[in-house]
Amino acid sequence: MTARDNLTAALEGRTPDRTPLAIYAYFMGAGTPADLAPCLRNDDWKRLLDLGLSVTGHCALVQATEHGVETGTEERREGNDVYEMTFKRTPVGEIRKVMRNGWHSEDWIKEPRDYRIVQWIVEHTELQPCYDRFAEHEAAVGEHGVTVVTGSGDWLHRSPLMTINIDWAGTEQFCMDVALEVPELFDLYAAMKKQFIAEQRLIAAGPGRFVKYWENLTVGMLGPDRYRDFLMPVYRESVPILEAGGKRLMVHYDGALNVIADQIAKAPFPIIESLTEPPEGDMTYDACRALWPDKVFWGNLNIGLYDLPAPRLREAVLDRCRRAGRRGLAFEISETLPANWKTAVPVILDALA
């Protein structure tokens, strides 16, 4: 079986010939399909591909166009600090986010009226399919792996409440506004949910088999009740739409999950992607398998494992395979590229072989 065949078998919930290890093309230095070809020819990466490493490409099938919105950037200096401000001006007001010396400084949403401005933007955004992108991504990845499809924003494609949390309000503002039940936040959620479901219909009608929501869920910001009330309804409505189009959904859950483990067991998505054991996560693979026997685990190996001596790294990988079971199991490099990847990844591939 090729690397693509093995990875596909695992993601379909079958037992591959060998448990795959994949890597985001981004971590190979490939931000676009055109960038991937020279990466695949690079001696270091080619050696790992020959040893069985798979590649994961990501392709946005939808383009979002904001109408009636002026977007621009401004820069100012204060002493040794450089501030880059991105603004969005609309007929109902202006919002902005700020980067300080290349680091996040201010989020778009700072007060309740800002939710109204974002809602106006959402309600005046046009979604259009761009299915032709997929063939280019597939040609680049080839037999080395799979292309996972997303919606508009690609790496920003997530369910509505997670979009508000991560991309608009930020941690502090979001947590306060959820706790205070700010009405404007939930009005924005409703508008985003309507748009999101429409987007899933476009994705379902397009090419590709595997769809990803980049949830980046930090459940401590929500709690199980909010998860039940605002994420589960989206999953229950969107998954049948995707399945009708021949798609399988994966959610990017790389953190603590134990407090919602019972709800995940009932959730309709078949694949949990970037699933990570402690200390980053809070559930072991055997515990996950006991609770979610039919879900596919596309697991992220803890970054600390890569620093282990080769025999201990090998045993740690094999131990995870034993506890998770080989059916419906794959691993990946999905959070960061280890500094010692050239020496550690061959050990992992040898263990998985």
Describe this structure in words.
- The chain is α/β, with parallel strands linked by helices.
- It starts with a helix and ends with a helix.
- The longest helix has 22 residues.
- β12, α10 and β13 form a beta-alpha-beta unit.
- The chain has an eight-stranded parallel beta barrel, surrounded by four helices.
- α4 packs parallel to α7 and α11 crosses α12.
Q: Main beta sheet, described?
A: 8 strands, parallel, barrel
Going across the biggest sheet, name each strand in turn. 1-2-9-10-11-12-13-14
Unreliable residue runs = none
Structural class: alpha/beta
- Beta-strand share of residues: 15-25%
SSE order: HEHHEEEEEEHEHEHHEHEHEHEHEH
Number of helices: 12
Overall number of strands: 14
Rg over CA atoms: 21 Å
Overall pLDDT metric: 97
Q: What is the end-to-end distance? A: 12 Å
Shape: globular
Please bin the fraction of helical residues: 40-55%
By oligomeric state, this entry counts as: single chain
